[in-house]
Design a protein that fits this description.
The protein is α+β, with helices and mostly antiparallel strands and 507 residues long. It contains 6 helices and 30 strands.
Length: 507
């Protein structure tokens, strides 16, 4: 190590190898920094300026630590397909890739054909080892992906629309014809969640142990699977929705509606956090990038849009239609429609996606869902005649109150001692949703004389009054409590030294 003095400033000169390592670390640090640093000179509040300076320093230290970890513990980077000359990567077939990769990787390619039970949907555990497959005609199966052993399969003899694992491979939930059911690994039915109704899509929030569902009537439910408590029951009011996805960054649920709107929800608020008009036609698919800052949506007008959720603006619009979308952990975007799968890649790192790979299924196969297996360069494709896997190359429970658009605010705001009281509008919305649920229940036909229209109307009126009663009783309790507190505060006798400051009562 030497020293160089220039313009009165003494600089240390590193050897070439150390200088190269230092430059490489500086490049990696920029990758982990959270944008440009804040300009603290314009702030006049000294306390705020000091707090932000400490935070900026912590951000810099964490970025340097992450860069060192990547440099020394992750020396190699994942490979991608590279084309030569006029060759295109999306024209390379799966059979050609299977011949070039190692034996263990080639075993990841397989096709399960079950022509009478599809179309299929699926879900992987967080570790990627286990897969749950669900056929539309009632077939449920759990598969160990490490040794390709079938753990358990059952036939529920009714329509199955979706399936998700819960916190581990021991439990999974299936959205069946009338209600969602929870099963254990041995196929034993544990619970029937009748409050959810006829569910179209399911999502599980692993950090919060919440099972979220959207049903045919547009009601969003949040169920705590540890206590069995219904945390949230909201009427979206935005029409039919069979597109639902959870943002892994903040736990916010996004719904795609037939009006072309995407709405975002959390379990502690009856109104959507965000409503954004994304497409001119109905939303057909939706997916989040693992970093939580990018969202991909597809509309029936045959456009796929990439959104920056930090600014809620469109970064890129891709031509084509997608019935299902999914991001990989490396940032690849898979889209499936009909019998064709496309994979888009951001190989330059500039958030500019281009066509990377393509795969055409056999004639007659209709794709139902595409899903990347965690920690593997493998894409799972659920289709109308079974399930296929292809190469893609490239726990503490948190309370529901921690779900918000910007989870970095957690810890910077004073924790509320009591649960926030719902506003008058939220209370009225909950009461209206409860009344609508009650009205949708069909009345049983009774014997002659007891089935008169007047008696039916009276019975429905009694049911509506019964549904409203808890909300009205709670409102009366709050009013009585506020009056009692006000009276108590007025009756408090002040010390003689402070009586001159007391407000005189009007006679």
């Amino acid at each position: 190590m030497g020293a160089k003095e220039e313009n009165g400033v003494r600089e240390n000169i590193l050897p070439p190898i150390e200088q190269e390592i230092s430059d490489e670390l500086d490049t990696k640090v920029k990758k982990y920094l959270r944008g440009e640093g804040a300009n603290l000179e314009v702030l006049q509040d000294k306390k705020l300026k000091g707090q932000l300076a400490v935070r900026e320093e912590l951000f810099g230290k964490s970025a340097k630590a992450a860069a060192k970890v990547e440099k020394w513990l992750l020396p190699s980077e994942g490979g991608y397909l590279e084309a030569e000359g006029i060759e295109k990567t999306w024209r390379i077939k799966q059979e050609s890739i299977a011949r070039e990769v190692d034996i263990l990787s080639s075993r990841n390619q397989y096709d399960i054909v079950l022509p009478e039970l599809g179309p299929y949907t699926m879900d992987f555990t967080a570790s990627g080892r286990y897969m749950a497959a669900a056929g539309r005609k009632g077939h449920l199966a759990i598969v160990d992906m490490k040794n390709m052993n079938l753990i358990k399969e059952i036939q529920v003899r009714e329509t199955v629309r979706d399936v998700v694992f819960l916190h581990n491979e021991l439990f999974f939930a299936a959205a069946q014809k009338k209600y969602p059911y929870i099963y254990n690994r041995d196929g034993t039915e544990l619970h029937c969640l009748k409050e959810h109704g006829a569910v179209l899509k399911l999502q599980f929030l692993r950090n919060h142990f919440l099972l979220a569902s959207i049903n045919k009537s547009g009601h969003l439910h949040y169920q705590d699977v540890t206590m069995g408590e219904m945390v949230g029951n909201f009427r979206t009011g935005l029409g039919h929705s069979d597109v639902m996805q959870v943002n892994p960054f903040n736990g916010v649920i996004a719904l795609g509606h037939s009006s072309g709107t995407v709405s975002m929800w959390k379990p502690t608020t009856s109104a959507p956090l965000i409503k954004m008009l994304s497409h001119q036609g109905p939303i057909s698919a939706l997916a989040f990038h693992p970093n939580g800052h990018l969202m991909a949506t597809s509309g029936k007008e045959r456009k796929i849009k990439i959104w920056d959720l930090r600014k809620f603006e469109v970064l890129q619009t891709l031509p084509g239609h997608a019935k299902t979308l999914d991001f990989s952990q490396k940032g690849l975007l898979a889209s499936g429609t009909g019998s064709f799968v496309q994979i888009f890649g951001d190989l330059s790192g500039s958030q500019n996606y281009s066509r990377y790979m393509g795969h055409s299924m056999a004639k007659g196969y209709q794709i139902g869902k595409v899903l990347f297996r965690p920690y593997e360069d493998v894409l799972g494709i659920g289709h109308s005649t079974g399930e296929r896997r292809k190469f893609a190359l490239f726990l503490t429970k948190l309370p529901p109150e921690t779900i918000m658009l910007d989870p970095s605010k957690i810890g910077t705001v004073r924790q509320a001692r009591k649960k926030e009281k719902p506003t008058k509008e939220e209370r009225e919305a909950e009461m209206e949703a409860a009344v609508e649920d009650v009205k949708s229940i069909t009345m049983k036909k009774k014997t002659k004389g007891r089935n008169k229209p007047s008696k039916k109307a009276k019975k429905k009126q009694e049911v509506v009054v019964k549904a409203k009663r808890p909300f009205l009783e709670q409102q009366m309790k709050e009013q009585a409590l506020s009056k009692k507190k006000q009276k108590t505060s007025e009756d408090v006798e002040l010390p003689s030294s402070l009586q001159r400051f007391a407000r005189k009562k009007t006679t």
